[in-house]
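Re: weekly structure request thread

Next one in the queue (287 aa):
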Amino acid sequence: MNKVGFIVDSTAIIAPDLIEKYQIEIVPLFVTVDGVTKLGTEIDDDKFEKDYSTFKKTTTSSPTPNAFLEAYQKQFERGFKDIIVLPLSEKLSGTHQTAIVARSLLSEEKQQHVHIVNTLNASIGIDAFFEGMRDALENDLDVGELISLIEKRNENALVIFEVNELKHLYNGGRLSRLKYIVGDLLKIKPLIEFKEGSLKAIGINRNRMKNIEMVVNRVVNLAQKCKNIFVNIFYRSEISKKSLEIIKEKLKEKIPNLKIATSLRLDPVFLTHVGNEGYGVAVCAYN
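Done, posted below.
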C-alpha cells in the first residue's frame, strides 16, 4: 500500500477506481432540505437532482470535528504513516477549519502526520486534480514530495461554470439582491470562476457564445504554459450540453494533447449553491 493516505470531503467528485485503489476516506458535509438534515453521503444524487425544483429551501453545513477525527483514525489504522487532507477551499466553507480542529484532538505525535492543505478548489475541480495526480500516486511519493507537488499543481487549477439561474447563488448569500433582480430580468447567464479559492464572476453575458469563447481562452492560456492538461466537464440540460460540445471541439482543435472526461455525478452540496442547470469545466494543468 502507499505510504500516504488521503481524506477529502463529500463535495469532492473523484473517480471510483481512485477511491478504491488508494483507500481515499470521505468526510460528509450536511445538506438540509425543507428542515430535514442528512449527511451528503446518504443522499441519492440522481433523486436529489430530479426533485430539486420541488424543494422550498436547501442549505448546507460543514462536517463535525468528530467526523474528521474518525477519518483520521481510520487512515492510521489502515497503516498510513502520513495523511493529506484536501477539503474544499477555505474561503468557501468552514470545512477546512473543522479539519484543523479535529487534528488538535489527536495525540501530539499523530498531529505531526496529518497535513491539511488549502486546495483553493472544490467539487469537479478535485476530480480533475486527482486525475492529474495519477502518475504521482503510482510513484508512491513521500508526504513532503506530494504536498509540494499538490501546491504546485494547485497554482494552475481552474474551475469555471455557467449557471442558468441566479437564484441559487442569491439564496446561498453569494449574490446581492440587486444583482439577482437585475440579472434575472435581463436573463443573464453568468460565468463564474473559482479564483484563489473563492467565487468570482468573470462574464456577465446574455450571449452564450461569449461565455464559450471566454472558457476556451482560459483553458488555452493554461495549455500554452503547461505540457500536460486534463479537463473534466459536467453539464445539466440539453442547452448546456450543446455549449459544452462546442467548447470540446474548439479545445481539441487548439490543444492536441488534451485529455478530457465527463464527470459522473454532481454533488448535492455543490448543486444546492449553483442549481441543477448549467455546465462546468475543471482543469488540472502541469509540466
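The chain has 13 helices and 13 strands. The first strand starts at residue 4 and ends at 9.
Next request, please.
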